[in-house]
Amino acid sequence: MFPLRRSTKDSSVDWPALLSLLEDDDRRAAVSRIAPSEGRESYLTALRRIETAQSQATLAAGRRLHTASKLIDRPTIAVSGMLNSGKTSLVSSFLSEAGQRRTLRGTSNRHGTHRFVLWLPQSWRSDVELWSLLITRIGDSLGNAPEELSLDPDIAAEQYNNRDGDASLLSVPLLGTDPGLDEVGVGLLDCPDIVSDEEFGLGSPEQRRELLGRAATLCSAFLIVTGAESSRDTTLADLLRIASDLMPGVPRMLAVNKVRPRQTPDQVHETFAPLVQKYGVGTLYAAYDFDVPSSRPFIPAFGDQHPQRDAISAQESDLQREDDPDPLPVFFSVSEDPDSNPPAAIDEDRLLQALPSKLDRGVLFSQLHQALRINLEDAVWNQGLESIRRDADQSFEKTRQCQQVLLDSALEYFAHRKIGGEVIELRLHQSERIIRQLSESFAATAPWYARWGVRLNATLRRVVGGAGDFIRNLTPTAVSRRAADDIKGRFRSGEYGGLIEPTGLINEIERHGGTTVLTHLAETSDHTSASEDGVSAFREPVERAVLRFEQDDFTTLDPRRLDTAVRQMWSEVPVHRKIATGLTPLAALFATFGAVLMIPVDLGANAILAASIPEMLAAAGLTIMSTMWAANRGTQDVSQQAARQQLADFLAVLCDELGVARPDPPMDVRVGNVDVTLPPSRIASGEPPERMVSLYRVRDEFIAELKRLLPRPTGASKRVGGSPAESGVMR
Which of 89, 158, 201, 270 is deepest in the core (most CB within 10 A)? Predict the structure, then answer.
């Protein structure tokens, strides 16, 4: 009667062991937290951070599967259906007269069922342990502990109908027991329809669909009630799909109520056959409309014990009293063969009333257990883990975007570009350390003609002393000082190099989308926008970054390669080459170096210069030397290696101060037609700032252990490793 779709794999799941894995925040933790501080998170901790409701649903799914075996002899059938289809009437047909009076039947909204009502055999209360387990399962499924259905029919009717209009009560099930169910030994879940209007304040159709799906996990079988005219109704298809998708393998039955005599049982079978086949319905039932006298031949009757037969007789003889209960529908299984259906005689076991006695508890449990396992797999893998993975992917993507904004902003200073925007070369941070190296190398390798007019005393040769002394040694004459001032103006105007100072850098960060991407800096600790105070949120961290880079940049050029490159360049310079100012090449170079060192003196420590060696030579008026240096691959390599290191260090410091994880593996920069990978930063990272972009990663160790304890659902995505979003962000 109920086909069992058996799984080829072992369906047993060790829930305590699986729960231990989901709670582990150490060796088997699900998530590595990379930023703001390194650490690990358990599966459940991460899921609570991302989606609290899903973490609760995962735990509930595990508990349902773990406790299912204890309820093998206590199956429950869900009775759902269309609006005014007679769901409660069908449920009432299994109850005692006292239980029937506690139900609510009718076609008006005042008589509608607007709560989930679970009817259980009264005898089940005697087993305290199992009863407590049942109550827990009900709460796990719908999210709230059940409310007792009143023994007073009037109060019970108000509860059924939710006449207080409290939509939140939709998720609080009513629980009633009845001795009429003791003999059949099954529970019945009377479900509200899923099409009632939200305007009544009794829950939207979407909310009802969601709750129906959650309630379905309580049940070992699904019985859907519909009217004869609803074969093409999309709502009926939705109900069947919910039953099929959420509880796969659990038996599904379709009961067609209020069939008119003009439609014979075999025609009913033909009409609903497409739905039966599409959604795997095991049995199709039909009940004819007892309000139509000509329906009587199609209503089976077996002796006087069936009140429906008496109800028809009383109705036909006009002897039925007004206070008698309404007659109840008589459902029977429909056969494709016309001769096997009423008005021909049928066996009593074809009645829906006989269903509980025919249920194979072992088969039902096997199907329910398999469905609950699939639900747990879906909750853990497809819902929970995907939420965690999606959150990790988003954190990597967010971090990558932030890093790209900061790199693009840094390149506005560290990249020497053509007019079209192509990067020709990377610029050096012209620190005092670099200037001293350049001065010493150019002085030590300069030919006699280049030194004319330059006093190379021992102090300069050793390149020692403070910055002030160094500047005076580089610009000893009034002519050289005037030249240095002129060159300094060229650097400050942006004609050569890039002058890095906080205000300009902030403007570049904002121009490259920093206000949109670096949103974690948008609010201050008291949750007010920094921009409301007239101060950019980037001001303080950018100032710290520039100052820190100036202090911690210890990058130097390779002395041997530098001397070789400078000596080669000197050898190719014309002997009598002079410049317009009357300075020799070496004097002009020293004036340029002095101009660079004057910039932080004039503008403060938060102003530094990034310029390539060809730009420095051009600023000195040594255009031939500039062209020669730029054209020689060997000389270019000397400075580009250091420039890449400085750019990587500056980017790392920007990331540190603006609350972004450092790039790991390092990012690429396109120079000319080649993608150049930046080296790892040599500047040590400090304490993470108060506001920082979080960065998470799903751990492969957790995935491997999860596969062992809860094998991945058949047909699920095979994605188990790191996300593509992680590339270029963090290793």
Answer: 89
Terminal-residue alpha carbon distance, the chain? 56
- Reported in sequence order, the residue ranges of 488-614 that DSSP labels E, i.e. its strands, are 498-500, 608-611
Cβ atoms within 10 Å of 204's Cβ, excluding its own: 16
Written as one letter, the residue type at 683 is: I
* Cα(74)–Cα(93) distance, integer angstroms: 19
Residue 415 near residue 426 (C-beta atoms within 8 A): yes
HEC string for 390-436: HHHHHHHHHHHHHHHHHHHHHHHHHEEECCCCCEEEECEECCHHHHH
Q: Which helix (H) or strand (E) holds 78?
A: strand 76-81
Most confidently modeled range among 327-341, 444-458, 474-488, 614-628 = 327-341
Structure tokens at 374: 């699939």
- The mean pLDDT of 684-696, rounded to a whole number, is 91
Q: Which stretch of 147-156, 265-274, 562-571, 630-639 has the lowest confidence by average pLDDT?
A: 630-639
How far apart CA 54 and CA 21 sit, in angstroms, is 17
Q: Report whether 383 contacts 57 (CB < 8 A).
A: yes
pTM of the shown model: 0.70
Complete domains list, the chain, with CATH: 11-73+372-402+666-731 (no CATH), 74-371 (3.40.50.300), 418-660 (no CATH)
- DSSP element (H, E) containing 120: strand 117-121
CB 697 within 8 A of CB 36: no
> Do the beta carbons of residue 43 and residue 384 sit within 8 Å?
yes
Q: Name which of 635, 632, 591 is nearest 439 in CA terms.
A: 591
Positive or negative: CA dihedral 76, 214, 379, 66:
negative
Contact 367, 249 (CB under 8 A): yes
pLDDT digits (tens, 9 = 90+) for 641-668: 999 999 999 999 999 999 999 998 999 9
SS3 668: strand
Q: Which residue has the higher pLDDT, 168 or 531?
A: 168
Q: What is the mean pLDDT of residues 479-504?
A: 77
Residue 281 has pLDDT above 80, yes or no: yes
Q: What is the pLDDT of residue 480?
A: 57
Token pair recorded at residue 45: 């901790």
Interacting residues of 708 by C-beta distance below 8 A, sequence separation 6+: none
Q: List Cβ neighbours of 236 (8 Å cut-off, separation of 6 or more).
A: 82, 224, 226, 230, 275
Q: Give 339: exposed, middle or buried? Use CB within 10 Å, 0-12, 13-18, 19+.
A: exposed
**The residue type at 650:** F
Cα–Cα distances in angstroms (integers) from residue 265 to residues 231, 271, 293, in the given order: 14, 10, 17
Structure-block tokens of residue 242 = 């919910």
User: Which of 60-74, 106-120, 194-208 has the weakest average pLDDT?
Assistant: 194-208
110, 157 Cβ separation under 8 angstroms: no
Distance CA 154, CA 110 (A): 13
pLDDT band (50, 70, 90) for residue 306 = very low
Q: Which of 502, 501, 497, 505 is nearest to 435 (CA)?
A: 497
Strand partners, 121: 178
∠ Cα 421 426 429 (to 5°): 125
Neighbouring CB atoms inside 10 A of 245's CB total: 12
Alpha-carbon span 98 to 151, nearest angstrom: 9
DSSP states of 478-500 as a string? HHHHHHHHHHHHHHHHTSSSEEE
